[in-house]
Amino acid sequence: MKRMSKLNKIAILAVLSIGLFGMFLQSCQKGEKATTDKVTELLGGGATFPYVLYSKMFDVYHQKTGMKVNYQSIGSGGGIRQIKEKTVDFGASDAFLSDEQLKDFNAPILHIPMCLGAIAITYNLPDNPQLKMTPEIITDIYLGKIKKWNDPQIKALNPDVKFPNLAINVVHRSDGSGTTFGFVDYLCKVSDEWQTKIGRGTSVNWPLGLGGKGNEGVTGLVRQTPGGIGYVEVIYAKQNGLPVATIKNKSGNFVSPELSAITKAADTQIPTDTRVSITNTEASDGYPISSFTWLLVYQEQNYNNRSEERAQALVNLLWWMIHDGQQYASALNYAPLDPKVVKLAEDVIKSIQYNGKNILK
Amino acid sequence: MKLKLLNDKVFKNILIITTSIVLLIGVAFFITLILESTSSISKFGFKFFTSTDWDPVFEKFGALPFIVGTLLTSFLSLLIAFPFTFAIMVVLGEYFTKGFISEVLRYLTELISSIPSVVIGLWGLFFLVPAVRFFQITFGLQPYGVGIFTASLLLAFMIIPYAASIAKDAMRLVPKDLKEAAYSLGATRWEVIKQVMIPYSRSGIVAGILLALGRALGETMTVTMVIGNSHFIPKNLFSPGNTIASVIANEFTEATGDLYLSSLIYLALVLFLITALINLLGKYILKKIQINH
Amino acid sequence: MINSILKIENLSASYDDKVIIQNINLEFQKNKITAIMGPSGCGKTTLLRCLNRMHELTPNAKVSGKILLESTNLNDNFMELNSTDPILVRRRIGMVFQRPNPFPNLTIYQNVLAGYLLNGIKLKKQEADEIVEKHLNLVALWDEVKDNLKKHGTFLSGGQQQRLCIARALAMEPDVLLLDEPTSALDPISTQRIEDLIVELQKTVTIIIVTHNVGQAGRVSDFVAFLYLGDLIEYGLTDTIFTNPKNLQTEKFLTGKIS
After folding, report:
1. Do both A100 and A227 map to the same domain?
2. Is A176 in contact with B254 (Cβ distance < 8 A)?
3. Which residues face C177 on adjacent strands?
4. Do B184 and C95 touch (CB under 8 A)?
5. Is B42 exposed, middle or buried (0-12, 13-18, 19+ CB in 10 A)?
6. 3-state secondary structure of A159
7. The pLDDT of residue C22 is above 60
8. Distance (Å, rounded) from C-alpha B175 to C-alpha C105?
9. Does A346 map to a domain?
10. pLDDT tens digits for B97-131?
11. Contact flag for A and C (3+ C-beta pairs < 8 Å)
12. Is the backbone of residue A210 left (phi > 0), alpha (psi -120 to 50) or beta?
């Protein structure tokens, strides 16, 4: 008898679990239908760099409008993949899509800049002096041509600093990341050798150095290795009080990565689709390793049986983010958009359509 | 009676279904890996195993540095872990099979195996890496701190509990009869351990080592944090390097190009094959050393 | 003439503070077979295990009293076992257990030589061959296994395995052989063969056998010691005790009234 009841229990459990699974499937379908009726939640995913700012913005936006935004910080690559597969309302990326990548999408994709980020050069030297760097020195260090800290070029640029006879320990990101993309994008622009030998990408074939996972990995390695040098997001360097170098920009000014200098980096010719790299900027006071971070949306919002309400909700959110949302940036160490860029972004948002008709009039 | 029979049938069917689902997932897993890596396989073929390039920008991919790194860290960690595993096995398997010391030791080893790998990685980064760097500075080596050796040390720390707990159980299964027979012939305790207990439990010991090796081959987070993530074949044991699992974990999320993604999956396939090969080898060894009862 | 090889004086043994045998005085005669009998739990196995210092391997076991073994040294007549290295004791006093326990990882050949292998004693090939053949012959196993010496011993029948274990103990050329209910796990035919073997072996070695089986004690032993609840009740020539027990408990046990 006892045995039978045990078997009974197992059988019942199995039937129950199969039933539950079925219900789960059904509820999934229901859930999809429900959103077409009334939109209460938008879905987004992508870049990790702006995650803190986006969370803040979405939190405030939810309190003000009741619209929830669910953002998954899965990395820029993931954001691009997700919007391509149309599983989210918007993707987020630190790198804009290349012409080739755009061709891969079967519908036009729009880029809306949200804020700016920048990459700082951090290092580990005795007493951590304030260093000046030129694009040439940075490139040569990362190409392995400058091997010691007491190299004549570095000494000449920083006459007040006493450099030890110490090997430079180059550190780079080991994970694919927008930060790497921004950094090597800059190197490509300032060095033909880098452009032809290494090129640009979220991961590249580094000629030398150690890899650290994430900003924290790079920081950890730089901090621990005497003579270390690495690149991290400015926001991360600020939060952790890392020493950062001032870098000579295209106009010949040495600029430190302050938020105002990062915002100013966008004070240059920006194309109407905002797909532009502003590293090595022409702006005379701009920090040279700055870049936008974008949200990606489809221009034609009627896909996958999306409702017009949903498209409208998305456009409202985007509009709010480039205007009211900007005020939260500085406090969180993100550089807000320049008014000129906001104007451009407005035009992009206005071009979003539903069934061929503009959503914003 | 009828109900009982029916129940038996239901139970049997559930078992068959669940078993085949697991089997199906395994096969599907393998097929997916092959399908998703087709473009990389057709482009690089077997050269993938011998090429040292890993250039996502110019889309040239080769796995050799990672294969070397994976095998090196796994086997080195096994080598480092072996004496400790052996000691724990003997202490817990023979000297202290119960009582306070046994409980404490057992608890500690189990605790180690339940620490999340990120935490172990952090500990490695903040404690082990500086320690290794100190030695590197002392002996005039490049003071990386991170590298193959550090990763192997940390892996060894992680796999000891696995290997030791299985090996210890095997030791405890040695029949009292046999131990007494050996004692009665004038053997010392060490001779009993060496000549009777270890030969008798060697298949269990090998099984423990295999499990540990599997863990070492596939470990990701810990390795990534302390291996230095450099895409070169390590020049010596203190050089930075990388493993297959670590590369995949690092680069998968941001891999945008089709060939890049396909090559990462090809890497996964290589790891799968290495693991399968080592398991087969292990099975063969187990069969060879099995004792007939 | 009385010729003692092993003497016990005031031997007591306990386990976890539970007394198992107490104040036992006994002398074992050289090249004779002594059976230790008694009902279950009387302490007969413990007594046996005290003799080659196996009892002390059990955690929390205690032994007191003296055990004296005829010395190989000409100056002393006897050596005190509890102050001798147990390793040496066990080489001079071999043991065979209730269940046949050949080493499963060794071949038949290696099993016979197990004592040498375990102790790390190196033998020349010819020497080793001689030892194996001699002792397998002694236990009447040679003809049965001589073509399978390189096979593992585990394929043998229970009786053959037990004879292999006896050969293994004898190969160390002990002075005394302890048998702890050696046939309790065997069928009647195998038992018969082992009993014949035991009687045969007393020419070469002094045998002390613990048995639960009255008939077996009667068939093989020259002397009998009867233990009851940890005390030695009666000791003497087997024929005398079997025909004319002095003690009531002995008589009850012999007639099957207690077991």
Report:
1. no
2. yes
3. C94, C207
4. yes
5. exposed
6. coil
7. yes
8. 13
9. yes
10. 778 888 888 888 888 888 888 899 889 988 999 89
11. no
12. beta
Give the CATH number for residue A301: 3.40.190.10
Tell me: the pLDDT tens digits for C86-141?
A: 888 898 899 999 999 999 888 999 999 999 998 888 889 999 999 999 999 988 89
CB spacing of A225 vs B145 below 8 angstroms: yes
Nearest CA in chain C to B194: C118
pLDDT in tens, A201-238: 889 999 999 999 989 899 989 998 889 999 999 989 98
Chain C touched by B183 (CB under 8 Å): yes
| pLDDT tens, position by position, B18-38 | 999 999 998 999 999 999 999
Residues A110 and A246 in one domain: no
Token couple for B35: 């399908």
Same domain, A66 and A92: yes
Q: Which of A290, A316, A346 is the last residue of a domain?
A: A290
What is this structure's pTM? Answer: 0.80
B191 touches C: beta carbon within 8 Å: yes
- Nearest-by-Cβ selection for B184 from C52, C103, C155: C52
The nearest alpha carbon in chain B to C152 belongs to B292
- Are A232 and A207 in the same domain? yes
Segments forming the whole domain that contains residue A172: 118-290
Q: What is the mean pLDDT of residues B256-271?
A: 91
Which of A290, A307, A330 terminates a domain? The answer is A290
A275 occurs within a structural domain: yes
Taking CB atoms and an 8 Å cutoff, what residues of chain B touch A198?
Answer: 57
Q: List the single residue in B184, B185, B199 with the smallest CB-CB distance to C105.
A: B199
Mapped onto helix, strand or coil, the DSSP state of residue A165 is coil
A245 within a domain of the structure (yes/no):
yes
- Amino acid, res. C210: V
Say whether the B–C interface has 3 or more Cβ pairs within 8 Å: yes
The answer to whether the beta carbons of residues A122 and A77 sit under 8 Å apart is no
Please name the residue of chain A whose CA is at the shortest distance from the CA of residue B226.
Answer: A212
- Put simply, whether A202 touches B (Cβ < 8 Å) is yes
In this prediction, residue A34 carries a pLDDT of 41
Domain count, chain A: 2
Residue B189 forms contact with C (CB below 8 Å):
no
Q: How far is CA B10 from the centre of its chain?
A: 38
Domains along the sequence of chain B with CATH: 37-292 (1.10.3720.10)
